[in-house]
Amino acid sequence: MARVRLWNYIYPRFPERGLEHRFIGDNNEKAAQQARWGFMFGTFGYAVLGSLTYFLIPDFFYRSKFFVYGFIVPTHLFAAIVIPFLKKFFYLQWVLVFANFFSNTCALTLLYLAPDEFYLKYGYGLIICVTIYTFSMLRLRTFFAIVASMLVTGQYIVFMIFLRPMPVTDVVYSLALLGFVGTVGLISVFFFEQNSRTEFMQARTIEEQSKQLGEEKQRSEALLRNILPETVANRLLSGERTIADYFDSVSVLFADIEGFTSLSRRLKAQELVQLLNRIFSNFDSLAGVLGLEKIKTIGDAYMVGAGLPQPADDHAEKCFAMAQGMIRILEEENKTLAEPLRLRIGIASGPVVAGVIGQNKFIYDLWGDTVNTASRMESSGVPGEIHITATTMAALGNTAEFVDRGEIEIKGIGKMRTYLARGLNAA
Known about the structure:
64% of the residues lie in helices and 17% in strands. The chain is an alpha+beta fold.
C-alpha cells in the first residue's frame, strides 16, 4: 500500500484515462513552448560561456571553440526550432529527458576539455546549472524530472570516477550541492505538477460550466424566439427593453371553436388537451407556411396577424388563406369526432400597435381598433364561415367571393356593413 501511495506521488494520474490524456496533451503544449525558450537560453548561455573563456582562459577557448560554436550552439538552436513542432507528440516528456541528457553530455565534454583549474573550481557549478535548467526550463513532470536528474547525477559521478577524477573532498562537496539542488528542484516540480493538475481540473470545470451555460443560453434564446417573432426576440436579446411598433396596414384573424365548451364536459382532461393541441399545432404549422405571426391562444380561441412584424402588401390574402386552411383542418379532425366542431372566424384589416409586454413572461400582443373589430367579427360571425369587414373585402379584391350581410349590430362598435368571404371555387 505504501509503495502504491509513493508511486501515485511520483507518477500521479487521473482515474479517467481520457482525462489523463487530455492533461498530457495540454501539458505537452505548454512544455514545448517553455522548452523552446529553454533551448534558446541554453544556446545563448553556451555562446556567452565561450566568449568569457576567450577573455579569461584563452587556451581553453581555442581548444573548445569548434565544439561550442560548431556543435553545441547549432544543436541547441536546432532543438529550439524543432521542439514546438512536437507539442502534439504524446511522448514529448521522454524527448525532453533525452534532450536534457544530451545537454549534460555537452557540458561534461566541455569539462573534459577544460584545464584542471577551471574544472576543479567551476565544474560542479556547470553541472548544477544543467540541473537547475532541468527543473526550471523543461517543464518536466515529477517522474520524468526524477529520471532526468538521476541521469545527470549518474553521468557526473561516472565522469568524476573514470574520466576526470577529483579529490574526495571536492567529490563530496560537489555531490552534496548537486543533491541539495536536485532535492529542492524535485520538490518544486512535484508541487508544480500537483498545481498544474488542479488548475487543469478547474479549467475543465469552468469549460464544462461555460458549455452548459452556453447551451442554456441557446435554449433560452430558442424558447424566446419560439414565443416571440424572431426580429422582436433579437431586439430583446440585444438589450432593447421597450418594444412598440406602429403598423398602418395589417390583417388580424380571430377564430373560435364552436361546440368545444360542451365537448369539454364529455371528454377526459387528457383527451381534451390532446385534441386542442393537435388542432392548434396544425394551425401553427399552417401559419408558419403562410408567413403569418401567431399572436396568442385563449382557451379554444386562436389569434394570428399578417403584415407584421415584417410588412406585407398581401396581408389580407394571407389571412384569408389561413382561414380557409383552418376550416379544412377542422373538417379533417371532425372525421374522428362523434359530434362535429365548427369554426367562427373573423378578419379585420387596418392599423395596429404591436409590442412586447411583461417582465418575466413576455408576450407579443396587438392593440387598436382593428384588433377589437377582428374579435367582434369572430363573435358575431357565422359558424363555418369567414366574417370580414369592408376594409378587408377591399384588400382581398377579386381573390374571393363575398356575401353581403348588410348592416348588422356589432357589440361595442354599432352598426357595420360586413361580409362573408368564400373561396372562388367554393360551392
